[in-house]
């Protein structure tokens, strides 16, 4: 080890004393991690890809990918955070003794920052639609597609984006305790709304066909591509590669079982995906809607269905409250990543770091807010808008590379990982084998596929 490495590298005791003093309780950490993984993708992307690749057959494949790849990488990120007691960049430097790994950590931080910049835009849409749904603006006879296009084609999304940043900053500025209290209220509320909406839509005429479509396996639709799609969704649904779980891991007590916490997060993610499917498919089949991927499902097709229901304003409003909760819990974890970095890197207080980071994230997100509906010309390049390009680069390039860095670091670089992981010898050897020889290859394939460099005809 060089002189510089010896100066950077610290013992576990030194890291514990010099690292962040923010702490979650055990239940608070699990709920915060679940809140991070519960997002908008499971509500509008997961039903689409499930229907495309064989219903329950794909759900089974997704579950296998979650268990074999998603959860091992999740434990790795949490372990790095708890071992390094800092932001992703700080933790990687402390645990390796090499500054170059800090640069790789910055990659994940950049991913979280840019995802937050456009994610706040869509979160703002959910709040706007919750307000207008409860207000009765989405009702039978209203052209819901024209309503949506009019909304995103103006500047009102910028205002709602600002509201999201304000709410998220207000929560994060309180540190781990504020994040924990927020998730302890919002996650149970999310589950109750999910169950309530599921019961309601299962009572719709024709809902049974949607349930059958979702839960009946069609293994003939599984393919090489479906495996990579399942892997990619398992990876992204757990918020991996964007530094959130490393950041949250830094707030975990040494006594916390990361294995048990990981199983709880994975179980929560699967339950959310299952309940989302049992809401989306019965609704789409009952009203003859195509469960297409993307915002069109949530903001056009489903509002049309809710407007045709008795008390549709109530169920539509609850649906968008559900989406808003899912979005805000993810926003909190995303914003915490660059804030933790600013506190570590520049020694800022949490108040200063939160205000400056939130403001910058808002400004970077404004072009996304006004590019989707064409409020301002010149924000499209090729087939994608500014919003789409930001999403594509962050989600399909930065995040897989961030996940690849985690597997290589834990599998080959970090020497004292066994002490921090807290796994029994047998589970540790299996976990290390997956991180060294299985996960890197599969993550690389997911990266090649999601970036468009690998296709199956």
CATH architecture verdict: Orthogonal Bundle
Q: Please, how many domains?
A: 1
Strand tally is: 2
Strand neighbour order, sheet with most strands = 1-2
Percent helix = over 70%
* Count of alpha and pi helical runs: 21
Shape estimate: globular
Major sheet: 2 strands, antiparallel
Q: How much is the radius of gyration in Å?
A: 22 Å
How would you sum up this structure in a few lines?
The protein has 457 residues and is an all-alpha fold. It has helices spanning 3-8, 12-18, 26-37, 41-44, 46-52, 56-84, 88-96, 100-134, 144-152, 156-172, 175-202, 207-215, 224-237, 244-249, 258-286, 295-307, 312-346, 350-371, 386-413, 417-421, 425-450; strands at residues 380-381, 384-385.
Structure description:
This protein has 457 residues and is mainly α. It has a single domain (3-450), classed as Hydantoin permease, CATH 1.10.4160. It has 21 helices and two strands. It starts with a helix and ends in a 7-residue tail after the last helix. Residues 1-8 have low confidence and may be disordered.
């Amino acid at each position: 080890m060089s002189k510089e490495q010896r100066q950077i590298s610290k013992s576990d005791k030194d890291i514990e004393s010099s690292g962040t003093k923010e702490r979650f309780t055990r239940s608070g950490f699990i709920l915060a991690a679940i809140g991070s993984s519960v997002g908008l993708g499971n509500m509008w992307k997961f039903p689409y890809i499930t229907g495309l690749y064989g219903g329950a057959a794909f759900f089974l494949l997704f579950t296998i990918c979650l268990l074999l790849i998603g959860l091992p990488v999740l434990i790795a990120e949490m372990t790095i955070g708890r071992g390094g007691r800092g932001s992703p960049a700080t933790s990687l430097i402390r645990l390796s003794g090499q500054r170059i790994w800090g640069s790789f950590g910055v990659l994940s931080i950049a991913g979280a920052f840019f995802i937050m910049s456009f994610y706040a835009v869509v979160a703002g849409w959910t709040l706007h639609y919750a307000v207008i749904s409860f207000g009765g603006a989405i009702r039978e006879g209203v052209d819901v597609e024209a309503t949506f296009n009019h909304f995103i084609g103006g500047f009102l999304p910028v205002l709602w984006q600002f509201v999201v940043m304000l709410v998220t900053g207000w929560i994060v500025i309180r540190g781990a305790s504020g994040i924990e209290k927020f998730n302890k209220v919002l996650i149970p509320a999310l589950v109750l709304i999910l169950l309530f909406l599921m019961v309601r839509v299962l009572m719709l005429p024709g809902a049974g066909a949607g349930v059958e479509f979702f839960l009946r396996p069609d293994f003939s639709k599984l393919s090489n591509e479906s495996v990579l799609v399942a892997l990619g969704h398992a990876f992204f649904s757990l918020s991996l590669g964007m530094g959130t779980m490393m950041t949250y891991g830094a707030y975990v007590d040494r006594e916390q079982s990361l294995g048990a916490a990981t199983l709880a997060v994975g179980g929560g993610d699967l339950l959310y995906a299952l309940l989302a499917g049992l809401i989306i498919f019965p609704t789409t089949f009952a009203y003859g809607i195509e469960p297409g991927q993307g915002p069109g499902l949530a903001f056009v097709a489903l509002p049309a269905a809710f407007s045709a229901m008795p008390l549709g304003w109530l169920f539509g409003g609850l649906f968008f409250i559900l989406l808003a909760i899912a979005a805000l819990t993810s926003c909190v974890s995303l914003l915490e990543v660059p804030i933790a970095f600013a506190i570590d890197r520049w020694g800022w207080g949490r108040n200063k770091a939160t205000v400056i980071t939130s403001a910058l994230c808002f400004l970077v997100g404004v072009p996304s807010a006004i590019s989707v509906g064409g409020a301002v010309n010149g924000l499209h390049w090729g087939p994608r808008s500014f919003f789409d390009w930001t999403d594509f680069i962050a989600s399909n390039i930065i995040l897989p590379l961030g996940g690849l860095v985690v597997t290589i670091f834990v599998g080959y670089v970090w020497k004292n990982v066994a002490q921090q992981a807290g796994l029994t010898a047998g589970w540790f050897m299996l976990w290390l084998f997956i991180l060294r020889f299985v996960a890197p290859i599969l993550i690389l394939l997911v990266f090649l596929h999601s970036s468009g460099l690998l296709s199956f005809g």
